[in-house]
């Protein structure tokens, strides 16, 4: 078979070399293989009737070469793998394949070229054809990763014989014969695919020859198809072959039996031009032995595309230029500094150069294939654009945006064009971040699994706290925000009677209320005054908060939509619709008929932001917002959306609400909300709105998002029948908590805080505590290690927004590394006995200690549980984990710049001068908080995550202290000591890419140009920048 030397020819075991020594062993090395028509991997794998060597097998040849050099393949990672031409029918003499390893680049990566030629031809260079290129990176062996195939199979339900998967690909003209056809079972679970794999007898006979068996690898690349909905599978009409892989690792040999895990979601599909997925190949015990991260496949329409005998109707085969050709950067006729031109101009130049035509002759609306470009050309164009734009682009970009105009529009919505090309040392790649985040749970302290969902933005308004920073101060100081009904709501005395049971009256006037629920910036959100008046305040407040969440996450609506193809969901918890009662009161007299529709709360956000994912209102009573969060995370895992805004809103707008709750005897008679306290007799209604942005963890890290926390697992269930409609069910509560813990993979003994529902009723609190004690008591012997509290003592019961209020509290505690007093002071008597339980009452402002894994004694991130139990029986529990940035590798740490790189331009804009001053005040508060953001992160977020509006301010500062001082002066109407520019841009300036870009110059000149509305080519952000 293939004659590449095998590891058995090397004396001794491979060395676990350090990266520099391993590179010395490999630099300039060359390996050869001869492929003949009798090689089963080629003979038994046909595409459109043509024998084709599986593309992923070319990577096996590289790893063999690594092993033959005495370097442990577990230290090797292949990145930016590009499949340019398949190895097909070799002819009578065979097909010679060579693997060439070049000299290390500035970042230590070795360039890899895999080329081939017919063995009968002369050895002239012109006869070679490049099949694949990649980068070989060396580092330490990764810790053993692991998945639990049995648990995943149980979650997925009944499986299907693998023959059905092969039947599916036969319909798109890919045929597998004996050697290349594995046996097993495939499963489609919620947000993942799984397959059990057994090699055919003929394939097993050759196991010793392979590090990664071609039949196993090829089967693994088919499994993502099973994650597609059946209807999308049936839409298939063409074959697909690999075109790129962001990262490939194979730590050890793949045996005769194993598993394939695809965590999902799959982007694209058989009805698209390309398809992307992450793939893990495991041994029979679930240990990951090979990982393909960012695996992309491309549609192949005809056999001519494979053999080179035709161009599939694409005309000729012009090639993309190498950097520097046709007036590219660094050449006469180019721009010198590659970032000096707007994105649209750069795209036009690069595509025109590939075609060999003047830029003015390029039709921007004609498809790339119609211009005569090939798949190879488009991959090369992506690399050229990557250099010109100074940022990482995924290789199938030009397949998904198939015209120059569409491509420019997509790129324009992303980061701006930098002043300089990419440095020789590559920035951390998207593929690496995605692989790290998507890794399955491993032995030792379990990390976020492949289904992990990141929280990347949060915002909220609560009683006594107009923003999350104010909420932290209120909680940390142990204050509450309870008060009487504000006089601008209704005449509380008219509806009050202290005697419970009085018809039409409430026995309390206490609540927790928001300020300014009647205020709304209608023009900003594109409402007319009349529309704003008739819209329910629930709708208005959630819309405002959703906008603030996107700002906190560092994204504009258009930018996030561009990253996700618009697949952003909106899930809003809401349960009161009493605003329409005012419309009912006013309608007989000809007044406005105000309305309340739950669906308008999320739908309004989707409409304004042009998001096309699921848009749902969720009414699960007190569990509404946490149920919305659970559904949003599951929607992401199922691939229904690629990001989601989720949260809840709750207001007390009409006295009817208090009267109704008083009739049900749910309200506290003394006007205090005391969860788990002796003598507690009911809750105090609270108002509030909160929301978060959810994204797959890998996508969040790849986008440079700041990750507040990771949602490790959650469960949503109903209590079923109990002794009364509103009576809790302890066993049902136990089940939902246990299921969330199981799904999270988090040991109960590592959870350091639990935000309880805490309904402030004797029966409800006792049942909740008993359920928690039962679940945790079964899973850990530790006692009084987990603090327990409830935000209701400070804010009252926010009902539909109760869950998101608890979530925001947890995220703030994680950010500050401290727990806040939640159950009164030490003198208050509790209604439950914490002694000899896993829990202790949270009564102090205290450090939140990190826990250790009981199995390994290794430290783990801060972890928390969160519960809500709805009055009608809807129960939700969620497990959260603080995200830890991985420690940079020594080489990356050494290459990182130290100290300030120079002055930065900080941009602010608003629609009015007053709003601009308010933005300056808010930014001042943000940079003065206990854990202020880095200046580079602030600059990047304001530059890419804010819409540029008419009234503009730019400050040139060197550090965060200078920025805070300057913002203070601006907010008070003064002139700061640092360089400052004010300006007013015309309406056209809001459109990106219009007009000539300001020439790259000093920060002062850039600030001046931007405030006047001119397009500016900003410097590229640092590799480690976060939004």
From TrEMBL:
Keywords: Acyltransferase, Cytoplasm, Phosphopantetheine, Phosphoprotein, Repeat, Transferase. Residues 8-306 form the PKS/mFAS DH domain. It is found in: Cytoplasm. Pfam families: ketoacyl-synt (PF00109), Ketoacyl-synt_C (PF02801), PKS_DH_N (PF21089), PP-binding (PF00550), PS-DH (PF14765), RhiE-like_linker (PF22336). The active site is at 45 (proton acceptor), 218 (proton donor). Residues 341-415 form the Carrier domain. Residues 157-306 are annotated as: C-terminal hotdog fold. Residues 8-143 are annotated as: N-terminal hotdog fold. Residues 1-30, 304-341, 414-453, 845-867, 884-911, 975-1027 are annotated as: Disordered. Residues 893-911, 983-1009 have a biased composition (Low complexity). Residues 1-27, 323-334 have a biased composition (Basic and acidic residues). One of its GO terms (biological process) is DIM/DIP cell wall layer assembly. GO terms for molecular function: 3-oxoacyl-[acyl-carrier-protein] synthase activity; fatty acid synthase activity; phosphopantetheine binding. PROSITE patterns: CARRIER, KS3_1, KS3_2, PKS_MFAS_DH. Pathway: Antibiotic biosynthesis. The keyword Metal-binding does not apply. Its main location: cytoplasm. It comes from Streptomyces boncukensis. This is Uncharacterized protein. Residues 450-882 form the Ketosynthase family 3 (KS3) domain. Residues 1018-1027 have a biased composition (Pro residues). One of its GO terms (cellular component) is cytoplasm.
